[in-house]
Amino acid sequence: TPDSSPDTQPVAASAALMERALAVTPGGVNSPVRAFRAVGGTPRFIASAAGPWLRDVDGNRYVDLVGSWGPMILGHTHPDVLAAVQGAAAHGFSFGTPSANEVALAEEIVARVEPVEQVRLVSSGTEATMSAVRLARGFTGRSAVVKFAGCYHGHVDALLAHAGSGIATFGLPDSAGVPASAAAETIVLPYNDVEALEAAFAEHGERIACLITEASPGNMGVVPPAPGFTDALRRVTREHGALLISDEVMTGFRCSASGWYGLEGPYEGGAPDLFTFGKVMGGGFPAAAFGGRADILAHLAPLGPVYQAGTLSGNPVATAAGLATLRGCTPEVYERLERTARTIADAASAALTEHDVPHTVQWAGSMFSIFFQPGPPKPVRDYDDAREQDLPAFAAFFHAMLAAGVHLPPSAFESWFVSAAHDEEAIEAVLAALPGAARAASD
Ligand code: PLP
């Protein structure tokens, strides 16, 4: 059981660190959602993590349902990943030359995701999507990009229009500092709306280099594509000579061994042209990738005219962590993730129903989110639907869970992430916390 009771959970050490952080770092954090702005209160500064547990600097223990926002699919400090990281680090931290692990990680990705013939490794999901868009523009000789409202592809200038994630939480439609010229080439459409898609391509098709979509969106909460929607994306982009980029940074190697593509593909009209990956494939270290058709990848330097590079790309320690993580993602791991996720989501839904809190649960593999929708349950199909949530109810739920030793994502617009290390003890701790949190949400 968690070793601090809900009533006595001290957070003085976290609060003191936040005070210091605020003096030297904007908002006290290095990524906005960590600041707890959407839910209020003191972010917990984590000192260590093992398996499904986080321990903060005050000594409180939490069941972790954030999983570093996706990467920690095997749980924290998994022995095989730790050994791989320690082994790699002992041989050097960064070479700035090719190294064997880069080849092995690329081979592992190519073997798992059938349409991906080649990949280029980078250090973050943002770099992956930014580079994929540049490549699509270089390959097609066109400049416009289509994205969906509520889809987050990292903080790439051209892709920060109507993004989800932290942006949705803050209600900012766009970011300051993005020149109008960068956003002017971005067409933002509502998700799951084939008519809007066809209309946009009918009007601008000749200018459109690519359409980028989250394979199954998780940054406005989990909003899977309606049946046939991804097929429509493939059909329409192909009709107009535009590339289709499937952003699997969140879903890749999480929804299945080959990501969302493994669950929904192959598609009627063919596979997406390019894919982006991150999170799980780095095992908690900075490793990400973009890849796809070899004839398109051949446009990248040093073969072709599209420039892309990175001092730490393919870093030997990060690639060792990613390889060990992917190799640990066995079929049993995916079965276990789904079982654990079902148990937790069913119990959460039952507790909320018991306390008359209206909500809708949505799924993508083992990724799920609970939308605190007012009114009768109805599917959340796009960003406008997702924004109808009762945010104060979510904040009350979040804080009651936290006080009871369960760390949820501190925003109503996120997926909950389970790991293969969530054992009976961790699951029981979550189930025990839910009734009180549902009561708090109903107040
Ligand atoms: N694409 C998707 C679908 C994501 O969920 C994220 C991050 O949450 C990114 C891209 C950006 O990745 P990173 O935060 O590693 O830059």
TrEMBL record:
<dbReference type="InterPro" id="IPR015422">
    <property type="entry name" value="PyrdxlP-dep_Trfase_small"/>
</dbReference>
<comment type="subunit">
    <text>Homodimer.</text>
</comment>
<dbReference type="GO" id="GO:0042286">
    <property type="term" value="F:glutamate-1-semialdehyde 2,1-aminomutase activity"/>
</dbReference>
<keyword id="KW-0413">Isomerase</keyword>
<comment type="similarity">
    <text>Belongs to the class-III pyridoxal-phosphate-dependent aminotransferase family. HemL subfamily.</text>
</comment>
<dbReference type="GO" id="GO:0005737">
    <property type="term" value="C:cytoplasm"/>
</dbReference>
<feature type="modified residue" description="N6-(pyridoxal phosphate)lysine">
    <location>
        <position position="279"/>
    </location>
</feature>
<dbReference type="InterPro" id="IPR015424">
    <property type="entry name" value="PyrdxlP-dep_Trfase"/>
</dbReference>
<dbReference type="InterPro" id="IPR005814">
    <property type="entry name" value="Aminotrans_3"/>
</dbReference>
<dbReference type="GO" id="GO:0006782">
    <property type="term" value="P:protoporphyrinogen IX biosynthetic process"/>
</dbReference>
<dbReference type="Pfam" id="PF00202">
    <property type="entry name" value="Aminotran_3"/>
</dbReference>
<dbReference type="InterPro" id="IPR049704">
    <property type="entry name" value="Aminotrans_3_PPA_site"/>
</dbReference>
<dbReference type="InterPro" id="IPR015421">
    <property type="entry name" value="PyrdxlP-dep_Trfase_major"/>
</dbReference>
<keyword id="KW-0627">Porphyrin biosynthesis</keyword>
<comment type="pathway">
    <text>Porphyrin-containing compound metabolism; protoporphyrin-IX biosynthesis; 5-aminolevulinate from L-glutamyl-tRNA(Glu): step 2/2.</text>
</comment>
<keyword id="KW-0663">Pyridoxal phosphate</keyword>
<protein>
    <recommendedName>
        <fullName>Glutamate-1-semialdehyde 2,1-aminomutase</fullName>
        <ecNumber>5.4.3.8</ecNumber>
    </recommendedName>
</protein>
<dbReference type="GO" id="GO:0008483">
    <property type="term" value="F:transaminase activity"/>
</dbReference>
<dbReference type="InterPro" id="IPR004639">
    <property type="entry name" value="4pyrrol_synth_GluAld_NH2Trfase"/>
</dbReference>
<dbReference type="GO" id="GO:0030170">
    <property type="term" value="F:pyridoxal phosphate binding"/>
</dbReference>
<keyword id="KW-0963">Cytoplasm</keyword>
